[in-house]
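Suppose you are handed a protein chain with no further information: no name, no annotation, nothing but its sequence. What can you learn? This example shows the usual starting point.
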Amino acid sequence: MVTILLMFQTSHMKDFKSFYLYYLPNCRDEFPQMPCYERFVALQPRIASTMLLLFMSLRKNDSDSAFVDSTLIRVCHNKRIFNHKVFDGIAARGKSTMGWFLGFKLHLVIDEYGEIINAQLTPGNCDDRAPVEDLIEHFKGKLFGDRGYISKELFQKLYLKGVKLVTGIKKGMKNILMDIKEKILLRKRSIIETVFGYLKRTMMLEHSRHRSQKNMGIHVMSTLVAYQLLCKKPAITPIFQMIS
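A reasonable first move is to predict its three-dimensional structure. Written in structure tokens, the prediction is:
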């Protein structure tokens, strides 16, 4: 089941039902005991712990520079917000630069090679700064974020844990000195936006066809696992090459 879900994430197909019913039968020799589609969907919650352990084993933490950001995951169209019941009590209404939405936020921390260091899923109304301490629990180094992560209290908490939070400044704020490496890496923060774009457009991280809360969580985890298994990921040029 884990293999089938990871195959779907890299198949570029729009929905799992079409993949299972029309593409997977061509691989029946590799999956001789493949159940029907309805039974497969019903059995998915059984592999939640396996998928989580697989994701945790694939996380990277050997870099001293990381980028943090979040992206929204809508669970329905705005016109159906008041009629949506699947994620009632779990999803929340939030606001992004694209407007209001109902759903969740996926928070990611990645390194300069596009490898995921940690991830967390929160309700859509969660402040981007709230899960940062949990996300960098085992990370030491410099963490780069956008202006939404500006917080003196958060900076001090992270600094005591061996993490330096580097962000841009808002209009009217006093300028701060930073070394050339920090300036260059802050400008390269868009790498995490590239990762989010790949997860959404190519691996179908976000869609509105979920009919189960548990299966939605498995879908998010399988997307992240499939991404970690990619041979080639979005990356930036090593800092010593950019300086030279």
